């Protein structure tokens, strides 16, 4: 990104032109030749669902690009269907249609039918979800490049939380007794239990023991 583009992005963020993109039901992997529908929400300032946008999705791998327009499925919610032509690690970007607010997911593997990729650990899945759920927009985490673009939430780098509290908070952020800068409150993203477990594993730095440990 050029210096001018970075400056324009920072100006837009400063004057309130930012939103958080939250991808729902992020797949661990995709299957070549089989359509997959990605659904996502767009929230201005991380809270207000934005309707009337014209989002799109792009997937890139090995010099190939697959594009798909998104359609509205409800207030502030959209869906786009992709069919990937080859196996590999695909980088998927959601363009919200709201100023500079876009989201590039961690690479998602696409495998040929009948040849599934290795399943990620809970912490690895949690890192992918930290990006896909938009956590990286509001929180800085040193394991996630480009995180903390709009730092209205606490820095999570190296932080550890009580595991039970963290799971309860991710399920219902309203239990928090403190607020972020400017009184910012995290919205309830209606995370599934599996997503909560994965995010908690990543945030708390859990790892899978290696053979012989």
Secondary structure: elements and pairs:
Blueprint lengths: L2 H12 L4 E6 L5 E2 L4 E9 L3 E2 L6 E6 L2 E6 L1 E4 L2 E6 L5 E8 L6 E3 L3 E4 L10 H11 L2 H4 L24 H9 L21 H11 L10
Parallel strand pairs: 2-11
Antiparallel strand pairs: 1-3, 3-4, 3-8, 5-6, 5-9, 7-8, 9-10, 9-11
Description:
The protein is of the alpha+beta class. It has two domains: 93 residues, Sandwich (Immunoglobulin-like); 82 residues, Cytochrome Bc1 Complex, Chain D, domain 2. The protein is 22% helix and 26% strand. It has five helices and eleven strands. The strands form two sheets. Strands 2, 5, 6, 9, 10 and 11 form a six-stranded mixed sheet that branches. Strands 1, 3, 4, 7 and 8 form a five-stranded antiparallel sheet that branches. A hairpin with a 2-residue loop joins strand 7 and strand 8. The N terminus and C terminus are likely disordered.
Give the strand tally.
Answer: 11
What's the alpha carbon Rg, rounded to whole Å?
Answer: 17 Å
Q: Tell me the count of domains.
A: 2
Q: Mean pLDDT, rounded to whole units? A: 87
Q: What's the CATH H-level homologous superfamily of the largest domain?
A: Immunoglobulins
| CATH topology value of the largest domain | Immunoglobulin-like
What is the CATH architecture annotation of the largest domain?
Sandwich
Measured distance between first and last alpha carbons: 43 Å
Percent of residues in helices:
10-25%
Report the order of strands and helices. Answer: HEEEEEEEEEEEHHHH
Q: Report strand %.
A: 25-35%
């Amino acid at each position: 990104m050029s210096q001018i583009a970075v400056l324009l992005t920072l100006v837009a963020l400063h004057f309130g032109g930012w939103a958080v993109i939250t991808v729902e039901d992020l797949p661990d992997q995709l299957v070549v030749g089989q359509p997959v529908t990605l659904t996502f929400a767009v929230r201005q300032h991380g809270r207000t669902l934005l309707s009337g946008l014209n989002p799109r999705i792009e997937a890139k791998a090995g010099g190939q690009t697959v594009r798909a327009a998104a359609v509205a499925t409800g207030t502030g919610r959209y869906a786009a269907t992709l069919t990937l032509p080859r196996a590999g690690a695909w980088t998927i970007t959601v363009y919200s249609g709201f100023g500079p607010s876009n989201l590039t997911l961690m690479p998602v593997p696409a495998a040929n039918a009948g040849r599934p990729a290795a399943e990620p650990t809970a912490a690895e899945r949690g890192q992918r979800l930290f990006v896909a759920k938009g956590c990286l927009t509001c929180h800085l985490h040193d394991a996630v490049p480009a995180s903390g673009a709009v730092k209205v939430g606490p820095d999570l780098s190296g932080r550890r939380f009580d595991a039970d509290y963290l799971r309860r908070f991710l399920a219902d952020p309203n239990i928090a007794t403190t607020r972020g800068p400017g009184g910012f409150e995290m919205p309830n993203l209606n995370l599934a239990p599996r997503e909560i477990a994965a995010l908690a594993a990543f945030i708390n730095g859990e790892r899978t023991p290696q053979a012989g440990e």
